[in-house]
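A reminder from the course coordinator: this example appears on the midterm review sheet, so study it carefully.

Given structure:
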C-alpha cells in the first residue's frame, strides 16, 4: 500500500499567513483603540465607543450619551460652521460640508421662489400712505413684510388734518448712538426734533449725557443728512437737509424706503457724507 506524501510547504505557508494576518489584525485593532479614549468620559468605567459631534465628549453607551446631554445641556448637533484643522479634516467632514452647502443652496433657492420675500408690502394702509406722500412730492416705497424695517414702521397719516406722523430714526454716528421716534409730525422742524436730544438744557438728561459731544457743539456745527435711495453700494450719496425747515419740506422731492433715517453729523465729519450732484438732484 503506497503512502501519499503531501507537500508541507503550502501548509506551512498558509499557517504562517494566518499568523501574520492575525498579528496584523491585532495591530490594527490596537491602533483603533489608541485613536479613542481608554474610558468613557461620563461613567469612566467602560471603554469609549462614541464621540459627541458637538463637544467631542467620549461615551460608551446610549445611557451615557443621554446623561452627558442632560448634565451639560449639549445639543449633540455638530456646529457645521466650526473651524476644522487640516489634520482633523476627513471624509466625514467633507461630506458634512457638502451637505451643508446643499442645504444652503436649497434655502436660497426657496427664498427666491417665495412671493412674500420678493414682493413689496401691498396693503390698504401702504397704498394710502404712498398716495398721500405722492401729493406732497414724496416718493414712498415699501419693503417685503419679511424685513425688520417693514415690520417696525409705525408711520401714520391723518386724513382730516392731511398730516403725516412719521416713524423716524435718528443716527448720531459720533456718539455711536441711534434713536427711534414714533409718530413725529411732519410740521415739526428738524431743529425742534433735535432739541429733545442735543439741547444743553431742554433735552432729556440721560440722552444728553450719551450725546455729550453733540450737546457741547455749536448748533451751526451740526448738519443732518439723509441717504439717497437707489444708488449702488460703492456710490453712496446723501441729501443735506435744512435744520430750520419742517420735516415735510425736507422730505419733498425725495425717495423714502418705509420711513426717514436721518444722520446727525458733527462738523469734522461732514466730508464723510458726499452730496448728490446738482445734475441728479430731484
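Designed residues:
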Amino acid at each position: 500500500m503506497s503512502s501519499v506524501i503531501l507537500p508541507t510547504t503550502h501548509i506551512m505557508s498558509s499557517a504562517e499567513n494566518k499568523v501574520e494576518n492575525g498579528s496584523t489584525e491585532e495591530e490594527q485593532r490596537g491602533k483603533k483603540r489608541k485613536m479613542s479614549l481608554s474610558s468613557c468620559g461620563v461613567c469612566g468605567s467602560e471603554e469609549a465607543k462614541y464621540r459627541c459631534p458637538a463637544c467631542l465628549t467620549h461615551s460608551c453607551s446610549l445611557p451615557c450619551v443621554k446623561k452627558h446631554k442632560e448634565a451639560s445641556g449639549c445639543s449633540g448637533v455638530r456646529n457645521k460652521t466650526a473651524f476644522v484643522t487640516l489634520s482633523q479634516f476627513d471624509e466625514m467632514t467633507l461630506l458634512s460640508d457638502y451637505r451643508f452647502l446643499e442645504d444652503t443652496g436649497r434655502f436660497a433657492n426657496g427664498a427666491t421662489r417665495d412671493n412674500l420675500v420678493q414682493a413689496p408690502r401691498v396693503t390698504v394702509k401702504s397704498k394710502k400712505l404712498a398716495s398721500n406722500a405722492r401729493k406732497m412730492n414724496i416718493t414712498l416705497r415699501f419693503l417685503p413684510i419679511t424685513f425688520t424695517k417693514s415690520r417696525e414702521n409705525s408711520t401714520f397719516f391723518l386724513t382730516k388734518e392731511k398730516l403725516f406722523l412719521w416713524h423716524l430714526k435718528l443716527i448720531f454716528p459720533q456718539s455711536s448712538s441711534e434713536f427711534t421716534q414714533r409718530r413725529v409730525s411732519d410740521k415739526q422742524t428738524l431743529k425742534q426734533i433735535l432739541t429733545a436730544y442735543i439741547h444743553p438744557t431742554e433735552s432729556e438728561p440721560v440722552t444728553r449725557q450719551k450725546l455729550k459731544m453733540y450737546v457741547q457743539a455749536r448748533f451751526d456745527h451740526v448738519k443732518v443728512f439723509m441717504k439717497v435711495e437707489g444708488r449702488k453700494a460703492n456710490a453712496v450719496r446723501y441729501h443735506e437737509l435744512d435744520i430750520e425747515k419742517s420735516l415735510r419740506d425736507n422730505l419733498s422731492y425725495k425717495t423714502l424706503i418705509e420711513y426717514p433715517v436721518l444722520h446727525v453729523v458733527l462738523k469734522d465729519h461732514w466730508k464723510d457724507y458726499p452730496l448728490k450732484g446738482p445734475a441728479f438732484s430731484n
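Residues 8-35 form the longest helix (28 residues). Residues 66 and 160 are 65 Å apart (CA to CA).
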